[in-house]
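Reviewers of the previous submission asked for a worked example of the structure-prediction workflow described in the proposal, so we include one complete record here. The input consisted solely of the amino acid sequence. No template or homolog information was supplied to the procedure at any stage.
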Amino acid sequence: SELLYDSCNLCGRCTLACPMGIDIAGLVRRAREGMSAAGFAPTDLYAAAERALESGSPMGVRWPALKRQIELQERETGLTIPVDAEGADYLVVLSSMEVIGFSEIIGALARIFHQAQVSWTIPSIGFEATNVGVQLGSRDVAAALLSRIVDAAERLKVKYVISPECGHAYSALRWEGPNLLGRPYPFKVVQIGGTM
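From that input alone, the workflow returned the following C-alpha cells.
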C-alpha cells in the first residue's frame, strides 16, 4: 500500500526513464485498481471519494465556499471574475486546496486573463479538478468526477480547460479522461503552468 499510494503520483516520468521501457505508472495504476476493488486501499481515500461524489470535492468544498473566495478576490483585484460565462475561451478548474488554502491564485488568474485580454470563466458546477478516483484506483469514481468537468466545459462551450497540476487532476483530465468517458473532447486540456 505504501509503495502504490504514497510513493507514486502516476506522472509516468519513471516510465520515460526506464531503460527497459516498462510502463511502471501503468502497472501501479492496475495495482491500485486491484487494491481498491479488494477493499485494501487507504481508508482516507475511500472517504475522500465518497465526499467527492456527494459534494463535488474530496475536501467537501462546495460552491458557496468558492463563491466567497471569488468575491474576496474581486474585491482585492478590482476585477470581475466570470462565473458560468458561456462561450469563454478558457474554463478554469481548481483543486479544493487552492480554493481553501491558496485562493490568491483566483486573483492572479484574473489579473493574467485581464492583461492578456482573453475570455475565461469558472464553472459553478464542476469546478473541482482533483480526481480522487485516479488516486484511489476506481475507474467508476474517476469517470464520474471527470464527467462533471467535461459537462461544464461542454455546457459553457469553451475552447480550453485549464487544469492545475494537482497530482492526478491534469493527467486524469488530459490523458485518461477520453478513454474513461469513451469519447474525445470538443475542447483542449492545458495545464495552469503550460502555454496558453
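The chain has a mean pLDDT of 93. We consider this example representative of the routine output the project will generate in years two and three.
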